[in-house]
Amino acid sequence: MRASFSYRSAVLILLLGVFTYLYGLDSRFAPKNGDEYPYMHIVRMTADTGQWLPLQSEMNGIKNTKPPLIFWQGIASTYWASDWTLANLRWPSVLYTGLTAFFLFLAVRRFSGKTQTGLLASLVWLSFFATYRYGRPFLADPPEVFWISLPFFGILYWGKSTFESKFFFPLMAGICFGFALFAKSFAYIVPASFALGLYYWRWRQWSIPQVLIRDLYKLILIAVLALGVFALWFAMDPYPEAVWREFVLGENAGKFAARQSSYLMDLLRGGDSIWLLLLTTIANAGLFSFVLISTLMQCWRARRFLTLEEVLLLLLIAAFLIVFSLPSQRSGRYLLPVMPAFAALIALYWDKLPLWGFRIALLLQFLVISLLIWIGGNLQFSQFMGDAGQWIYSYCHWILMSVSLLVVLVGLFRRSQTKVLALTACFLVYCALTSSLAPLEGHLGRYSTETITQTQGKDVWIPCDYRAKDEEYRLLLPGAKLHGYLAKDAADIGGLTANYPLVAVHSPLGVAPTLCESCQIVGQRMEMRARHSNEEIAEMLAGQIGKHLFVNEYLIATPAAMPDLSNLKDVCR
User: Fold this and answer.
1) Under the phi-then-psi rule, with left for phi > 0, alpha for psi from -120 to 50, and beta for the rest, what region is 159?
2) Which of 83, 255, 277, 404 could form a disulfide with 329 if both were Cys (CB 3.0 to 4.6 A apart)?
3) Of 404, 366, 571, which Cα lies nearest the Cα of 488?
4) Which of 423, 297, 289 shows the shortest CA–CA distance to 353?
5) pLDDT of residue 222
6) Is residue 553 a contact partner of residue 526, using CB atoms and an 8 Å limit?
7) What pLDDT is stored for residue 528 in this prediction?
């Protein structure tokens, strides 16, 4: 038995967690998923029409990619795209994440009888990298996780009354699941209903006849209500046939088609195998992955003495794991709704968990922070930038890095503090990641006000390596008419300036671009590269980080004639 989790530790880590989720909320480099760009595009295009439906998009095949709730959320938070910032798009996601953590705290506190355990469960969930990565950006995951989790939190909180409820709880659960479907996909009714069915089965002492007689109608009512809420999309959208074709058949039914050789082979091997699904589900815990593994080992050893609530948490995890192993496209991201259950189990077994999982977490944190310090020092004190400017960190950055490293070292060498400091360091690592790219969020990585003014209403060609990547450039060049070309051609300055009248090109740091006599540099900023060759990676490991990690982006005005846009493919689309 180890020292219990104290109130003081809980409050301090909670304050750190709140700061972590708000710090850098508007950062272009925040950990996220590439879906954010297409979602932003759909919000902006739909808001421009002044109508909630139908959803609008200029991307081929991507319009009704998700139900409208997430896009309505973006329209509302940006005031119909009139206040277009990443912070405005993302703050509802943080609110959903915070509410999920709060209700997880209430549920675990209620059935465990300990406030510290409830706080610990919510903090552990917030410390998971998947929660940080998917719980802040403008994505459908935060509302999905919240609305799916709420009925299960209700069961853990009220217990017997929810199982015996003949109408109120099924009504509440059906509406909550309906909002989850309206935010992500109707397919989630399958694992959610399956998990509830297992809950009722356990409550009836594993008696199937009792479940059929007393609870089957509740499950049917819940599923019908949830699907009824989702069906509102078809009722309100003026083109329901497009919703059926693009979302139901394309986005969901297509996930059962064989992706490589055959369904069975895909199940057992390859990038969509059941084994990789298990691995990526555990990896959702991020730095706490080995802590999660040790918790599951403890559950297995104590399997004959599990409490009712622990069994219910494991049944929820099993239900989602079984259902999402069936589609041929398998991803740990689909298991995000069960990560609060994993966090609750870690909190319940916290005092009994061995230290090795936490020490592995601390070692990983030590490696990450040390690497960030090394990279940051290399960037600030080397002369790689030439005329690009200076990569300068504030004193607060180095204080943060020093404190983070000290916390990790103390956690490694003080057994009594290992667990608490491992949890604390998760949040410190996320802050360190954000702080390490802070100079690029300032004037180094942005165009000047003069450049933005000069590009108002003009056609500008920009490099695209992902669909709707131009949505990021709309934050950098608001008011410009953007068109995309292949990002791999960004260094072909001669070819780009010969074809486009106003184009963004890339040049290595310290190397001025060779331009035609009548070409003019309109603006300049620094950008971080995403793809590198093996030789470049080797040189970066040898210390030449800035040489390959960053490029200068120049906005060039040329004498080239305006291309025929009707015959020119926009790569961003």
Assistant:
1) left
2) 255
3) 571
4) 297
5) 96
6) yes
7) 81
pTM above 0.85, yes or no: yes
Separation between Cα atoms, residue 483 and residue 489, nearest integer Å:
14
CA angle at 313 for the pair 132 and 133, rounded to the nearest 5°: 10
Q: What angle do CA 323, 325, 329 make, to 5 degrees?
A: 115
pLDDT value at residue 3: 46
Amino acid residing at 3: A
pLDDT value at 275 more than 80: yes
Q: What is the DSSP string of 403-441?
A: HHHHHHHHHHH-GGGHHHHHHHHHHHHHHHHHHHTHHHH
Judge if the upstream peptide bond of residue 54 is cis by omega within 30 degrees of 0: yes
* CA 45/CA 71 separation, integer angstroms: 10
pLDDT tens digits along 391-417? 888 899 999 999 999 999 999 999 989
Residue among 359, 348, 302 nearest 119 (CA): 348
Closest CA to 193 of 211, 207, 209, 213: 211
Residue 505 phi/psi, 5-degree rounding, is -125, 160
**Of the candidates 203, 200, 244, 206, the residue with the CA atom closest to the CA atom of residue 221:** 200
406, amino acid identity:
L
